[in-house]
Amino acid sequence: MIEFEHQVRVRYAEADRMGYVYYGNYAVYFEVARVEMLRSLGLPYKLLEDKGIILPVSDFSVQYKKPAFYDDLLTIKTTIRKKPSVRIVFDYETFNEKGELLNTASVTLVFVSKATGKPVNPTDEFNIVFTPYFQN
Amino acid sequence: MIEFEHQVRVRYAEADRMGYVYYGNYAVYFEVARVEMLRSLGLPYKLLEDKGIILPVSDFSVQYKKPAFYDDLLTIKTTIRKKPSVRIVFDYETFNEKGELLNTASVTLVFVSKATGKPVNPTDEFNIVFTPYFQN
Amino acid sequence: MIEFEHQVRVRYAEADRMGYVYYGNYAVYFEVARVEMLRSLGLPYKLLEDKGIILPVSDFSVQYKKPAFYDDLLTIKTTIRKKPSVRIVFDYETFNEKGELLNTASVTLVFVSKATGKPVNPTDEFNIVFTPYFQN
Amino acid sequence: MIEFEHQVRVRYAEADRMGYVYYGNYAVYFEVARVEMLRSLGLPYKLLEDKGIILPVSDFSVQYKKPAFYDDLLTIKTTIRKKPSVRIVFDYETFNEKGELLNTASVTLVFVSKATGKPVNPTDEFNIVFTPYFQN
Predict the structure, then answer these.
(1) Contact flag A25-B28 (C-beta cutoff 8 Å)
(2) Residue D62 vs residue D48, higher pLDDT
């Protein structure tokens, strides 16, 4: 299991006329959270793309419990529970400053070769990083 | 059952550096599709909000099969399968111009009173519109 | 001079907590308006990019007079006043359904070769289209 | 004169199919930069709105010199050159990690009473903060 926390401040453009963060904007927060998780593991996402691996999203789901508001400082907790293979699943929990759970979510990415457009296994540099977290 | 089709042209800002429509932007397309569906039924969403009913999203999920690209003219097929109660569930299918299914999705909205913040049943004007579509 | 009108419906995600269309979202509306203008002239923007010409923005300015609101149907009036050379200048006026002028704006694009990254003159297919509009 | 620097990491959703940050997204970066500037001065923007003052944008202009790319860490330098009255003008310079100037911009906000919709002078709490920076 790999866990990571990242904070995101809600921007003015991201709240709607109800005053709530627009439901689609969490997709952006979750992407920022997983990119920072990968960076903290020594795997900058941009480098992956430059090496010919893209990671399109295959599944995305969110269960919204409470809204976030403009200027809230959100904590996004990202968890990888299962050793990544062709697919990598990120589970999310979003908390506000009071520690209230605002939503839970899950995003599945697929390792795809840019050249062939086909799913591929994670490269060695990924496996070296991931393996120690998923022993036995 | 209520079915509705709406077309959306992919904007430049909505495609990412892979050339794909960014996964979070479908949330916006689905919102546009359900708003136009409600308008076609004589239920303009803005009017609802002006009457003190808000419809926050409680659940959102997407299964992505193929990407959409910049300037694609997408057809979003929206279906309400079950008579709305406190919750209203919209199912979606997105097609490109070749008729390929790009993704399927589901969005659940909750009728909430702006004044109390509590879930409420759909008002009469909703029921009058919905009832004929869900006879036995 | 070339003039073109295009209509855009304000989406929920595009209005902010003041209820106004967020000031940066007009950049998207103006892009949609000029892309549709070029399409109406037989010059689909996507085709240009596929031919190795990109058109990055060099200058953008807006003077906001009145806000637009969620669900407003806006009319964007786009005007090219001067025959395009290496640069092409689009002037904009945005109107609401009451015909009120909401803002005026200007966007300058530069024809750039994707291969060299250098500014280039418009290709023949552009000149053939533009020339008849700028006979003095 | 008041000067402030803030850093923004370019998100995946913010780069377009050219790989460039979409021109309209700088509006969001500039808003984040001025909000953080005001926060550093003890003037949280959200508090202002809660007190019945809104600050809509009246003018916005950008001169783009070089593009920013996905994952770039940008430094936004914000400057207020003139003591705010009914209007407050923010000047911006955006730099990449190599210290290259990517663009310059200017945003003018107007102090408006939410209740009356009319422009108003900055309140005392603003003046107390601003005055020391603009002596003689």
Answers:
(1) no
(2) D62
